[in-house]
Write a structure and sequence with these properties.
The protein is α+β, with helices and mostly antiparallel strands and about 700 residues long. The chain has 15 helices and 39 strands. Strands 3, 4, 6, 7, 11, 15, 17, 18 and 19 form a 9-stranded mixed β-sheet that branches. Strands 23, 24, 25, 26, 27, 28 and 29 form a 7-stranded mixed β-sheet that branches. Strand 24 and strand 25 form a beta hairpin. Helix 2 runs antiparallel to helix 14. The longest helix has about 30 residues.
Length: about 700
């Protein structure tokens, strides 16, 4: 009785003055459930908003607060500015990166920054600048360098450590940055330029596409010292070192670029592919290039392209450098253009397109456009198939089919409807693409892989390509503003194909047309070098096939300063040869480092072929220490002698976040929490909706609820 009395009183509060019926009781219960749910959502909103709000008092002092893409939370980080200074002479680029770490807080700080470099960069110098003081970095074995750095960090000394995570990804750690202090780290590297289709290309990566990390939890708890958003897995044990936090809602880490170019010949066209630039022409092929905007956010790779004046394109070049009793050589030879083939071979073309989350935004449009252009170009006697992959792999046809009008139309509709989302499980797609590639047909088998290469298990993929390529040729097409150049180039190298970058939609037609020309025109194969020298170590050890417009480029170490090199191969099925004479080589600088870098690459590749891992490691360390280079097994470390941080003061270790590459969709990569405003906005809207429903039910009950009571 008491219960019914209280219930009637509560019903009167909600506007029900008559005797409660079943419908009234239902409305009463539903109203309470809705109100309670709305209250919970509102409290969740308040809690989330409070947790996500940064400490703006500290922010006013100069500390950078950023919202992390993977969880939507705000974190503090040191400020970072990067200046890039390049000196290009002929085929060689000598570059210096100046990274300025600024601590805007009142506490002592350690800054940790993961950043990209060209995949062929030979990193050989690092130094710290604090005011007028300069501390030179020393090359050490990786574990020893880490130990030296940690000891200096604990002792309160300024120190910096430069480590290689991948050939195109490095980490700078800077310890004991004082309150409101800046520390400058200078890094130097050397690289050879790309020459293709009659153009030189200088590419500077400025952004890192977030890597997808496959695999489960490791059996044993690995020693975790990384600052990335991903945890180590069985397939990527260093996942926490290659996944720097990504900032949302703001553009950070500004970059300036200055280039002094001495092309060595007159230039007919000099341009930046993606950034406005200013150009000062000093005559005789010498130019000064700067970014027109001064500073740009590090969210899109930079590329400078120049074309020799007609008739001045180099056909062959040889440079040398003497170090002690050793000679080092850098050579380039451009084979003659391919002749028109009298007959075309029937082809089997397998198109693989990445539809994972990192391809969201502009990238999936670029990939779709490129693939549809390729499909339309198939000849009637070609066979083809289309494979897409994200978290799963899907094949359009059960097996390659003839390129009939009906099959091509079906494929075009399939590609046109592709959308990006999910993980980057690339191995399954690679296995399908390279399956059944040893048949007895006379068809030329080509695999075209369109992807941004945003994976962390590159080595496993390379190993699979090397052991399952068969009679296929693998061509990679890098999509987006910051593709994983290490994966793209190595996959093409192991696949005996080529790689192509497409960064913008308006590049699709021209870049794909150049690729089609290569697919139709393998210029040289079975290349080898003959000589009579006692010592001649050339890298790469195994020369690749060459395609239309591609030069043969190599480095070598020898005890000879004169003599003849004879390059031989097959061109259009016929024997071909050309000679280069060592005594005609022009003097150059930094060639020894370039040779050592390529030699280390060859050694690392041999480990995947079954070479003794311990022996490879020993040889790499010897080379890297001798040539003062960063490698997988060596690092650069610089330590000041004087402690500056009082032992009574703590040290905050903070990761420097990176930008999401231009055109990418954070929500596609990281999920709901990456969307602007995070889930708290959804909580707020749901709460309002539920409260509106409760008021609606109250109004209905007050009106009498005749329809329910009938």
């Amino acid at each position: 009785m008491q219960h019914n009395k209280l219930e009637k009183q509560e019903l009167r509060l909600w506007g029900v003055t008559r005797k409660p019926r079943l419908a009234d009781r239902v409305i009463y219960v539903v109203e309470h459930i809705i109100v309670l749910t709305a209250l919970v959502l509102f409290l969740s909103f308040v809690q989330t908003a409070t947790a996500a709000e940064p400490d703006y008092a500290s922010a006013k002092q100069g500390t950078l607060f950023y919202r992390a893409a993977h969880d939507g939370q705000y974190r503090a980080a040191p400020l970072l500015d990067t200046d890039v200074d390049m000196r290009v002479t002929g085929y060689i680029n000598r570059a210096r990166l100046t990274q300025t770490f600024t601590n805007g807080s009142d506490e002592w700080m350690e800054g940790i920054y993961v950043f990209p470099l060209p995949e062929n960069a030979a990193v050989d110098h690092m130094r710290i600048r604090v005011g007028e003081r300069i501390i030179e970095g020393q090359i050490k074995e990786k574990a020893e360098a880490k130990q030296i750095y940690e000891q200096a960090k604990r002792a309160g000394k300024r120190a910096s450590l430069l480590e290689q995570e991948r050939p195109n990804m490095f980490t700078t750690s800077v310890a004991n940055i004082g309150p409101h202090e800046s520390i400058v780290v200078e890094i130097e590297y050397q690289q050879t330029l790309a020459y293709d289709q009659g153009q030189f290309r200088l590419r500077m990566p400025l952004a890192i596409t977030p890597r997808y990390i496959p695999g489960g939890a490791p059996d044993e708890q690995a020693l975790v010292d990384g600052t990335g958003f991903a945890q180590p897995t069985t397939q990527v044990p260093d996942a926490n070192r290659i996944t720097p936090p990504v900032a949302l809602g703001q553009k950070i880490n500004p970059v300036t670029i200055h280039i002094e170019l001495d092309a060595g010949f007159d230039v007919s066209d000099l341009k930046s592919s993606y950034h406005p630039i200013t150009i000062s022409n000093h005559g005789e092929g010498r130019y000064t290039i700067n970014l027109a905007d001064g500073q740009v956010p590090s969210d899109h790779d930079f590329e400078l392209v120049w074309t020799p004046v007609a008739g001045q394109a180099p056909q062959a070049a040889l440079f040398s450098e003497r170090i002690g009793n050793e000679m080092f050589y850098l050579g380039m030879l451009l084979p003659p253009q391919a002749e028109q083939q009298t007959q075309t071979l029937a082809r089997e073309v397998i198109y693989v397109i990445d539809t994972s989350g990192s391809m969201g935004g502009v990238s999936i449009r670029q990939a779709r456009d490129a693939l549809m252009l390729a499909l339309k170009r198939l000849r009637g006697d070609d066979y083809f198939n289309v494979i897409q992959f994200n978290s799963v792999t899907d094949t359009l046809f059960d097996h390659p089919v003839p390129a009939s009008l009906n099959n091509k139309t079906q494929a075009l509709r399939y590609v046109e409807n592709l959308q990006a989302g999910g993980g980057t499980e690339m191995m399954g797609a690679m296995q399908k693409a390279l399956a059944n590639n040893d048949d007895e047909t006379q068809r030329l088998r080509q695999v075209i892989f369109l992807t941004d290469g945003a994976v962390g298990n590159e080595d496993a993929l390379f190993e699979y390509i090397r052991h399952h390529l068969g009679n296929s040729r693998l061509f990679t097409v890098g999509i987006g503003s910051a593709p994983n150049s290490h994966f793209m180039t190595k996959a093409a190298q192991f696949g005996r194909g080529t790689f192509t970058y497409i960064s913008r939609v308006n590049e699709v037609a021209d870049k794909m047309q150049a690729l089609f020309a290569k697919l139709d025109s393998p210029v040289m194969r079975d290349l080898a070098v003959e000589h009579s020298f006692n010592q001649f170590e050339m890298s790469p050890a195994h020369l690749p096939d060459l395609y239309l417009g591609e030069p043969l480029m190599f480095t070598a170490r020898s005890d000879a300063d004169s003599g003849e090199l004879v390059l031989k191969g097959l061109r259009q099925g016929k024997d071909w040869s050309a000679s280069m004479f060592l005594q005609q080589a022009k003097p150059g600088r930094g060639i020894a480092q370039l040779w050592a870098r390529q030699r280390i690459d060859s050694l690392m590749d041999s480990a995947a072929d079954g070479a003794d891992a311990a022996q490879v490691r020993k040889q790499v360390i010897e080379l890297a220490l001798h040539h003062h280079m960063v490698s997988k097994y060596t690092s650069l470390v610089a330590v000041d002698v004087t402690p500056v941080r009082p032992q009574t003061s703590g040290l905050n270790s903070l990761a420097v976040p990176v930008n999401l590459p231009q055109g990418q969709d954070a929500a596609k990569i990281f999920g709901m929490q990456a969307q602007t405003g995070t889930a708290q906005n959804l909580f707020w809207l749901l709460g309002i909706l539920l409260l509106s429903m409760a008021l609606g039910l109250k109004w209905y009950a007050r009106k009498g609820g005749q329809s329910w009571a009938a």
